[in-house]
Design a protein that fits this description.
Layout lengths: L4 H36 L3 H20 L5 H18 L1
Length: about 90
């Protein structure tokens, strides 16, 4: 355990940021699963609306620094490709 005041603060700050990042990553994963479920059910309309929502969430996470821009682009690309395959 840290003894120095600044080290104690860093531990608190890191825990706060970790919780925030986990929450946002989980949210993104949920949106991705919704798109994949719609694609598996071959429901084009639902997949398209879910894709739009998922892309928005991925972009928000990227702007907050949770995902690297290339990771976000890869995720969006794969989801879009999957939705277009059923259209």
């Amino acid at each position: 355990m840290a003894n120095i005041k600044s080290a104690k603060k860093r531990i608190k700050v890191i825990n706060t940021k970790t919780q925030r990042n986990k929450a946002i990553k989980t949210k993104v994963k949920t949106y991705i699963k919704k798109v994949e479920a719609a694609v598996a059910a071959k429901d084009a309309a639902t997949a398209q609306t879910a894709l739009t929502a998922a892309i928005a969430e991925i972009n928000k996470a990227t702007s907050k620094g949770i995902f690297h821009k290339n990771t976000a682009a890869r995720k969006v690309s794969r989801l879009t490709k999957a939705v277009n395959s059923i259209a």
